[in-house]
Design goal:
heterotrimer; A mainly alpha (about 180); B alpha/beta (about 575); C mainly alpha (about 280); B: six-stranded mixed beta sheet; about 40% helix; C: about 280 residues; mainly alpha; 2 domains; 10 helices; 2 strands
Chain lengths: ~180, ~575, ~280
């Protein structure tokens, strides 16, 4: 259990580079949804993927730094309430770390289920609890507004983390298959 | 009393946990203080693994089973951690971009000191001093994007020298450098060796380039065993290089073609030490017997640029009045230093960027209005790193991608894929996951994925970067095969061997202009072009001078013609 | 080559704001941001906003540098205002506890003075952090950022992760552009024209190569860092740390004063976070 929070140099590097990709996807790679004017943030799929490979600390920092940085580039300043919520989501995603067999080259059935349950929990905590509460505390936003926004975000980001995250993990598992038995021809 | 070795391997073996077999077998090697050692070997021979053992990445980052002993400065490395080892062995990694972790050169040089909690003032003083040793003192506030490859490497070097290590380890220092910068890198390493008397270990497969400056001993590795440990003259005169698939220096090849027996008493290890008293006659005679071939291609034009100009910001001209004409079935290389405009040129051809002025013709037709997707059916671009193109887990799906996106019916797709996989020698792997392939095979997959769209022209960016001689030959011979099928090939490259051996014609860019468009032999013997494009004079030219052959360019061209004839036979 | 050499258009100018150390600017930014995030008093918010516009002027930031950001923010604020009203037209009444109807709209609904006051305050509350952020971003050398974070007691490993993000973002951006173009050449359609079920797949055609080539780099970079002793001690020093001088202390004092005044105004004058002109 304490392994979950172990931070090695690799974790830090993965965090730095992961946050760079998160920032980029957050700004440029959105998948338009069938509902007009809304889109899926592929960044959360990436966040969930990195969190599963590198743990909660990396997950939290990637989403936090990535969201803050892309806000700063686009708006001039981070919107703290949502940036913090992103960090919380990434943190919870990280509980999938070492709970799946993805590093051993397997990511099917039960692993997919585990990963998705964790990511949905993460998204719900972040967007239905943390973000709305902070919005109310800081900005006194109308309660019904922030919860509507929060629920929408939770659904959208769960879909994104679910689809993109799952597919990325499957692709990653495929690259691990052959390890452990390499021999020269 | 016997001198104490600074590095001592004793019956040392190592096996990665992920591998079924040991990567290093029974290594016995002593390196003495102040020696300058070169370790060569084909990929997979275990030469990088030796490097990892020396600097402590094994077992710190890569776990495995160690047998025998490795002592550095008399201390058993098994009992040291990576941090203590890093105070004795400084490593300059092959990818100077990856090693550059600071936002500026100064920060990067200071990195090790920061981790040691060195106070601010002392840190700045030490960084300033080391920066001067590698001539980077005026670039300390520059970001890696403002620095050239050579400057980045010098920054890395300063970053490890700042700890005053006893041993400097260079892991493929030439891999990402253009020829002129590579030459300078070897000179800097030698200068530091002379000045500091540090022990130097260079791991590299580009033998001739390293031998630009003296080396005390060369260690040859094959399949994880040391098969030779000798001085350069003995090595070059032996058959070991041929047997292990390491490219021998070109001038040695030329001597052999001329029927000269290369022996160590003629000091053939470096072109500068080579004694040609006895070989002059043979070289001159051989040179005269070569039948001249005409490299000029007179087919109709397939791709033509006329007075093309391009700039990203409207201020700095990236391409400045570019005109050339490439003919059907040609194999051409485009060379020039980083930032000369090579990649921009290929981006214009593919339609990724639009020229400001000028026209691009495909078979006489202006292609201005063709979209990226339409151009891809004429001109295919293969990126340098195959991992940047591969997005599907299975070979078949990866190759099918472009066709599926064009809504080609599945049965036609199957047919076309079968054909292209056959050409690329991938048919037996059709249903393999791509992750199971080697780098060279992955490269083939990306080429297949482009070829399946039936382009008439193929542009490849550094197709052989980082490959050893065997893989290099494999990839290039494959491209020759494709070329013979009638596909025109444009290679963007730094590799002078590649130019000499495979592309009769070279277009040289410098500062956004074409400064030469002629035979590779002319380019590599013209000192002005060489200087402007960061190339290096080929050692063949030097050999011609030594042999008293006045027309060096003709000698180089003769060598190319001779080789081609050998191949065609 | 299109890739900007630095992440933000930070450029070294000779202004009093640029001369401040990164640490000072970070602390000032946080103090002032927290002040306007805490206070719901339009007088305080406007005062901070005027102050930050003056600082913006001093640091010679040109409008052209921030035009795009301003547009984005305005779109966000206007959307937020409309949605807010739509969801809760009585929010102002709830907050301030009085009702002053301005105009009747539909079915017994009114636009109230309270609602307008609430929404205007909120508009500026959101808006006031923008100039602060812009000043911080455009006048702080990115190299100083990580060391400043570490000096306000952020764990140095986390601070270094931020430095790595800033270091490698331009690389990632360039790689993304190259990959995206290469995949478009193979026929990838990124527009809305693609069918919905294909859109995720299409995005993955770019994301997968981007991530997998990055994973290779992670190993390389962490090896390079291990070899130079990263994380061997509990603390580390920073090459880019700047010594604090008198100007830094003045800036810190001003920001602290503003922050404390905000708190005091809330406690002693407004008796809460809200300023209520209606009673």
């Amino acid at each position: 259990m304490k392994d979950l929070f172990k931070v090695s140099t690799r974790t830090i590097v993965a965090t730095g580079l992961g946050a760079a990709i998160f920032t980029l996807l957050f700004m440029y790679v959105k998948v338009p949804s069938p509902i007009p004017e809304t889109s899926f943030q592929t960044a959360y799929g990436l966040g969930a993927f990195f969190a599963t490979l590198f743990g909660p600390i990396a997950g939290a920092l990637i989403a936090f730094i990535g969201h803050a940085l892309s806000d700063a580039i686009q708006y001039g300043s981070p919107w703290w309430s949502w940036v913090i919520a992103s960090g919380v989501a990434g943190f919870v995603f990280g509980f999938a770390f070492k709970r799946t067999k993805v590093e051993l080259g397997e990511f099917k059935g039960k692993d997919i289920l585990t990963f998705n349950i964790i990511q949905v929990i993460g998204n719900v905590i972040a967007w239905v609890i943390v973000a709305p509460v902070l919005d109310i505390l800081i900005y006194s936003e109308p309660v019904n507004l922030v919860f509507t926004q929060g629920i929408t975000a939770a659904i959208m980001n769960s879909v994104s983390a679910g689809v993109i995250g799952t597919l990325l993990l499957i692709a990653y598992a495929a690259t691990r298959t052959k390890k452990g038995s390499l021999s020269k021809e | 009393m016997e001198k104490q070795a600074v590095i001592e391997f004793q019956n040392f073996s190592f096996q990665y946990y992920s591998q079924a077999e040991p990567t290093l077998h029974d290594i016995n090697l002593k390196i003495y203080p102040g020696e300058k050692i070169l370790i060569v070997g084909p990929s997979g021979s275990g030469k990088s693994t030796i490097g990892h053992c020396l600097n402590g990445l094994i077992p710190f980052s890569y776990q495995g089973e160690i047998k025998g002993s490795l002592k550095i400065n008399g201390l058993e490395t098994k009992n040291l951690d990576i941090f203590r080892l890093s105070k004795m062995v400084g490593t300059v990694l092959q990818d100077s971009d990856g090693q550059f972790v600071g936002l500026t050169a100064g920060e990067d040089i200071a990195f090790a000191l920061e981790n040691d909690n060195i106070p601010h003032t002392e840190m700045h003083a030490r960084v300033g001093k080391v920066a001067e040793m590698v001539d980077m003192q005026n670039w300390l506030t520059s970001s890696p994007f403002e620095l050239s490859g050579g400057q980045k490497q010098r920054t890395s070097l300063a970053g490890v020298m700042i700890d005053d290590v006893d041993i400097l380890l260079f892991d493929e220092p030439l891999a990402n450098l253009d020829p002129a910068t590579g030459k300078t890198a070897i000179e800097i390493i030698d200068d530091i060796h002379q000045a500091s008397q540090k022990t130097i270990v260079i791991i590299e497969h580009r033998l001739e380039d390293v031998l630009h400056r003296p080396i005390d001993r060369v260690i040859v590795l094959e399949e994880g065993r040391i098969i030779a440990d000798m001085n350069t003259h003995d090595l070059v005169s032996s058959t070991i290089l041929k047997e292990t698939g390491i490219r021998e220096p070109l001038y040695v090849t030329a001597l052999k073609y001329a029927g000269v027996r290369v022996t160590s008493d003629t000091l053939p290890g470096h072109i500068t030490t080579l004694n040609t008293d006895l070989s002059r006659q043979a070289l001159t005679t051989w040179h005269k017997t070569i039948i001249k071939q005409d490299w000029r291609n007179t087919n109709p034009s397939i791709l033509k640029m006329e007075h093309v100009y391009f700039s990203y910001d409207g201020k700095r001209q990236i391409l400045d009045d570019i005109s050339f004409d490439i003919r059907e079935g040609e194999m051409v290389s485009i060379v020039g230093k980083n930032g000369a405009g090579k990649s921009t040129l290929s981006k214009l051809l593919c339609g990724f960027e639009k020229e400001d002025r000028g026209t691009i013709y495909y078979r006489g037709e202006d292609i201005k209005d063709k979209t990226i997707k339409e151009r891809a059916e004429i001109i295919g671009l293969v990126m340098q790193n195959p991992n940047q193109m591969i997005s599907k887990p299975m070979i078949y799906d990866e190759v099918a991608l472009g066709l599926r996106l064009r809504n080609v019916p599945e049965d036609e797709i199957a047919e076309r894929i079968e054909k292209v996989l056959k050409i690329c020698g991938l048919l037996p792997f059709r249903n393999w996951p791509i992750s199971a392939l080697s780098y060279g095979q992955k490269k083939r997959v990306t080429i297949a994925a482009i070829l399946v769209l039936n382009p008439k022209i193929l542009i490849l960016d550094e197709p052989t970067a980082g490959q050893d001689f065997r893989h290099y030959t494999e990839i290039m011979e494959f491209l020759v095969e494709i070329n013979k099928l009638g596909i025109t090939i444009i290679l963007i490259t730094h590799d002078m061997h590649l130019m000499l051996e495979y592309t009769p014609r070279a277009i040289v860019l410098a500062g956004g202009r074409i400064i030469a468009d002629t035979a590779a032999s002319v380019v590599l013997t013209d000192s002005q072009v060489i200087a402007e494009a960061n190339l290096k004079e080929t050692s063949l030219f030097h050999l011609a001078q030594l042999a008293g052959i006045s027309d060096g360019t003709a000698f180089v061209q003769g060598f190319i013609d001779y080789e081609r004839e050998l191949k065609d036979r | 080559m299109t890739v900007k050499a630095k992440l933000f258009s930070y450029n070294l100018l000779d202004t009093p704001i640029h001369e401040l150390s990164g640490l000072t600017k970070l602390i000032c930014f946080l103090l002032l941001t927290f002040a306007v995030m805490f206070s719901y008093d339009i007088r305080v918010i406007l005062a901070v906003m005027v102050f930050s516009f003056i600082v913006l002027k001093i640091s010679r930031i040109k409008f052209s540098q921030i035009r795009l950001m301003v547009i984005y923010v305005l779109i966000f604020l206007v959307t937020n205002a409309v949605i807010s009203f739509f969801f809760s037209p009585e929010e102002g009444v709830k907050i301030y506890g009085t009702r002053h109807n301005l105009v009747a709209i539909y079915g017994g609904m009114y636009i109230t003075w309270e609602q307008i006051f609430y929404q205007v305050t909120k508009f500026f509350k959101y808006g006031s952090v923008i100039p602060l952020g812009i000043i911080f971003l455009l006048t702080t050398n990115p190299s100083e950022f990580a060391s400043s974070l570490n000096r306000i007691k952020v764990n140095y490993k986390a601070a270094f992760a931020v430095a790595l993000t800033l270091r490698y973002f331009p690389d990632v951006q360039r790689e993304y552009r190259d990959i995206s173009l290469a995949q478009q050449a193979r026929g990838l359609d990124l527009s809305h024209k693609a069918k919905f079920k294909d859109r995720f797949k299409n995005a993955l055609m770019i994301i997968i190569p981007l991530i997998f080539s990055t994973l290779d780099r992670i190993e390389l970079i962490s090896n390079a860092m291990d070899l130079r002793g990263f994380a061997k001690n509990k603390t580390r020093t920073w090459y880019t740390t700047r010594r604090m001088n008198r100007k830094d202390f003045i800036a810190l004092a001003i920001s602290a004063l503003i922050f404390i005044s905000t708190i005091l105004i809330s406690v002693f004058i407004n008796h809460g976070r809200f300023y209520n002109p209606f009673i």
